[in-house]
Amino acid sequence: MEQIYLDHTSNTPLLPEVREAMAPYLHGEFANPSSLHRGGRKNAKALEEAREKTASLIGARGEEIIFTSCGTEANNFAMKGLAAAHEKKGRHIVVSSIEHFSILHAARRLERQGYRVTRVPVDQAGWVDPQKVREAIAPDTVLISIMHANGEVGTLQSIREIAQVAQEHGILFHTDAVSSCGTIPTNVSELGVAALTLTANQFYGPVGAAALYVRKGTKMLPFFDGGGQEEGRRSGTENLPAIVGMGKAAELALSHMEERTTSLLKLRNRLMEGLISVEEVYLNGHPTQRLPGHVSISVAHVESEPLLLSLDMEGISVASGSACNSKAMKSSHVLQAMGVPELLARGTVVLTLGIGNREEEISVVLDIFPKVVERLRKLNRTPIPQEVRSVR
Amino acid sequence: MEQIYLDHTSNTPLLPEVREAMAPYLHGEFANPSSLHRGGRKNAKALEEAREKTASLIGARGEEIIFTSCGTEANNFAMKGLAAAHEKKGRHIVVSSIEHFSILHAARRLERQGYRVTRVPVDQAGWVDPQKVREAIAPDTVLISIMHANGEVGTLQSIREIAQVAQEHGILFHTDAVSSCGTIPTNVSELGVAALTLTANQFYGPVGAAALYVRKGTKMLPFFDGGGQEEGRRSGTENLPAIVGMGKAAELALSHMEERTTSLLKLRNRLMEGLISVEEVYLNGHPTQRLPGHVSISVAHVESEPLLLSLDMEGISVASGSACNSKAMKSSHVLQAMGVPELLARGTVVLTLGIGNREEEISVVLDIFPKVVERLRKLNRTPIPQEVRSVR
């Protein structure tokens, strides 16, 4: 049997239609879109078409899309580029304590440059209370960045309400929508955000293409200085094959979103319920306000790495606590912020479904998982104190 | 007849072997190299193999290679990351006046942050005199960045001598080797550089993969903060298909360099001599110390855009003055720095050969070019004053 891939938050496979759309640009159509000859002009047109398709996915205009190489670039660009352009107004930034490291570490970098950063706490479900964001605002706050959905625990944030708070105070609001965009509706007007990060490889497009949406008229300093591509906002030769793939993947995500969600939810609910029915297995994140394909669980009396590797041996690919870069993870900052006890946090695995997963695969996982957990618990029976269990 | 592509400095086609090497990573092998399951571990290995191959091309160690998304990113990273890490020592930077905009505009950005920047002039051939670099050094100089070869005019710089000057003063030396690396020998030990930029799409590898070499032990601040990929120096999900392609292209470039150069030189010399034998067509850059496939010419009494478009209509793709981003180019800063009179500079086109070009194509170009020039000159007879002509 083929490996059962339940790590879609780390990367998604390319859809065949996306691969086909990219193919010409990996073969004959290799001209630089900035070149003035016919090959270049043709590719400039392909670039703009991909931009329009990407914009459509989030209800934006093409001119509001800046292509970047990855979500980390877009998040760094948003934090550093927006902060720098508005530093005369103030040097205070608000983020949540469960942002991706590309936001949190960018914030830390800005702190070293003299900015103040407030990290808004979350509740036990990983939810950011908009009221807490309001309380964090200072007279010199220039930027708020709160993610749309958390990739580690799946919880969805109340972005519209936070955007409302930001708007009332005339503060720029950026949301990292890497984990949500392409999976759930992410319309920039409905959300009310000034800037938003999305990446193609979260919705069956390629790695190497991501985008930062910046609302028309928003001042921003470039992050890459250079030849003036992307209207001077992001210089550098465009990764056209990947960008075209992103456009195609965005188009498909938009047109198939409802059916994908329905089918993901069905599989997800069965998987989630099956997993947490195992003794001392606890769900992380909000039980309902969560990404449709997302399950994060903490397994008592087990360490996540042996659990991940044992499942891997049985043909099941899952992620450990921090799905984006497992190497960097010691103890997940997200689980810490949610108050998950360290002993439980250490037994966390993340299972994220994709549109290619099937019912039979869920059956296999639900058959194998309890056996693996039992085996590991026999090897490593760390007692979890009563007070820890009662927290969950 | 197919379009004759003479714009290899803007982008090169993928070699079939490179495309084949990339293919698995655009199909089944899509796991994130940071994932701990078997797919991720396998891809982490592929990433490290590509790193070793890329390092071999420049005589470096794998651990000294930081993958980036493009040359512009690597150049911005070098300028900003090296400057920031050494700002306690000083805030003065030396560049040449003919650097790529990703260096010059990054330098301008640093100037706005309080750095001083000295732009060393070039001679009429676009050559940077190492003695001029020596004279530019101040007690607080922390970084020198001079390109290996200029992509617009093809001139090769005396990097070894400049590196020697830098070393004598204990100053970090970075070279932008985007236009040279993969085409001519670019060994970091022989050149004596502390940092070097290279991109895959200049040697028949894909767009989306480039690298910054940084000598082991060199302090540098990250440019992308985040999940800690590339040993924390460049966070962000790795563009594995492109990186694997870069590794393969680097391997091929290294093993075929001599034969490629021999064949490029033969074609280039015939093309160059044929073009400048046309009345009032002048070569830009150094006549011999230049990239093997590179011809830049200024055509009197003609504007480069109509010339480029006319050649394009005849099936020949060339670049206008600034090959990297024609949109950004008004009057090339490189030609200005070399003292090429504005009237001549405005009639500049760049023809860059690749390993796929054939003798017959050169014959076609040398047949068509004089006719196109004659036709355009009849339409637009701008007199060039005597003193302008004598400069050339």
What does this protein look like?
The structure is a homodimer of 392-residue chains. With 392 residues, the first copy, chain A, is α/β, with parallel strands linked by helices. Chain A folds into 2 domains: 4-10 and 257-391, Aspartate Aminotransferase, domain 1, CATH 3.90.1150.10; 16-253, Type I PLP-dependent aspartate aminotransferase-like (Major domain) (Aspartate Aminotransferase, domain 2, 3-Layer(aba) Sandwich), CATH 3.40.640. The first copy, chain A, contains 13 helices and 13 strands. Chain A has helices spanning 16-26, 38-57, 71-85, 101-112, 130-136, 159-168, 188-191, 240-276, 304-313, 333-337, 342-345, 359-379, 386-391; strands at residues 4-5, 65-68, 92-96, 116-120, 141-145, 172-176, 195-199, 210-214, 281-283, 294-299, 316-317, 319-320, 348-352. The first copy, chain A, has a 7-stranded mixed beta sheet with strand order 2-8-7-6-5-3-4, sandwiched between helices. In chain A, strands 9-10-13-12 form a 4-stranded antiparallel beta sheet, with helices on one face. Chain A has a two-stranded parallel ribbon with strand order 1-11. The longest helix of chain A is centred in the middle third of the chain and has 37 residues, at 240-276. Chain A is globular. Residues 322-326 of chain A have low confidence and may be disordered. At the A-B interface, helix 1, helix 2, helix 3, helix 4 and helix 8 of A face helix 1, helix 2, helix 3, helix 4 and helix 8 of B.
